Amino acid sequence: MGAELLARSARMVARVVRQGKAGGAGLLLAFALAISLAPVALAQDLTELTIHTRQGPLTYFVELARTPSERSRGLMFREELPKDHGMLFDFGEEQSVSFWMKNTPLPLDLIFIKADGEIVRITEQAEPFSQKLLPSGQPVRYVLEILGGTARERGIRVGDRLGEPLPK
Question: Which residues 6+ apart lie within 8 Å of 43 measured at CB?
Fold first, then answer.
């Protein structure tokens, strides 16, 4: 991913230079823009999360999004996500939340979870790049985003639960 990012950035900078639109500041701006638009890899610091389904426990490796900045970025710009990985948004307390897929090229399943770990809503196959709001429908503490289609494929349903200990 690092080599691809550098190559993509270099191509963008070269294009700006060829068009004669870059002095020192323009070149720096083009490079910064290239990096900001590049896909972001899933963080290496992952937390293991268990979901207890009717078919048995499932393990996911999740990146935690706890701060407003982390939650607002979410999985935007990510072009790949392993089936057993995701992002867990922790809002600190139960509240009504809504998500959208702006700048998100992958279809995702959104799993809305109460503070006690109970799954109360699943939005399947959220449309990439859509600005349509996807509401929780009731107060939740967590939202788990996983690759679109895997909730159904792996048998995750409303009423299933996150395993202990819940992320804090």
Answer: 63
For the full predicted model, state whether its pTM sits above 0.90: no
Residues 6+ apart with CB under 8 A from 110: 99, 122, 123, 126, 134, 143, 144, 145
Same structural domain, 14 and 97: no
Which pLDDT tens digit goes with each residue over 53-99?
A: 999 999 999 999 999 999 999 999 999 999 999 999 999 999 999 99
Structural domain for 88, as ranges:
47-162
What is the identity of the amino acid at 122? Answer: I
CA distances for 85 relative to 81, 98, 131, 144, 164, angstroms: 6, 21, 24, 10, 18
Same domain, 11 and 55: no
Same domain? 52 vs 85: yes
3-state class (DSSP) for residue 67: coil
- Rounded Cα distance between 113 and 83, Å, is 19
Is the same domain home to 25 and 60? no
Residue with tokens 């823009």: 33
Answer yes or no: do 73 and 131 share one domain: yes
